[in-house]
Amino acid sequence: MSNKVKTANVRMSAMYAPTLKEDPAEAELASHRLLLRAGFIRKQAAGLYSYLPLAWRSLRKIEAIVRDEMDAAGAQELLMPILTDAELWRESGRWNAYGPELMRLHDRHERDFVLGPTHEETVTDLITNELKSYKQLPVNLYQIQDKFRDEMRPRFGLMRGREFIMKDGYSFNATQESLQETYDAMKAAYANICERCGVKALPVVADSGQIGGDTSVEFMALADAGEAALVYCDDCGFAADEEAATTNVAVLDGPGNAELTKIETPHCGTIAELAAFLKAPENATVKSLCLIDGEGKPVLALVPGDHELNDCKAEHVFGEYHLMSDEELEENHLHKGFIGPVNLPEDIRIVCDESLKHATSWGCGANEVGYHYVGIVPGRDFTPDAWADLITVHEGDPCPHCGHALTGARGIEVSQVFQLGTKYSEAMGATFADENGEEKPFLMGCYGVGVSRTLAAVVEQHNDEHGIIWPVSIAPYEVSLIPLDPGKEPCQEVCDKLFAELLDAGVETVVDDRSERPGVKFADNDLMGFPYQIILGKRGLKNGTVELKDRATGEREDVAIDEVVAKVAALVEAQRA
Ligand code: ATP
Ligand code: MG
Question: How far is 411 from 457, CA to CA, in rounded Å?
Answer without folding.
Answer: 9
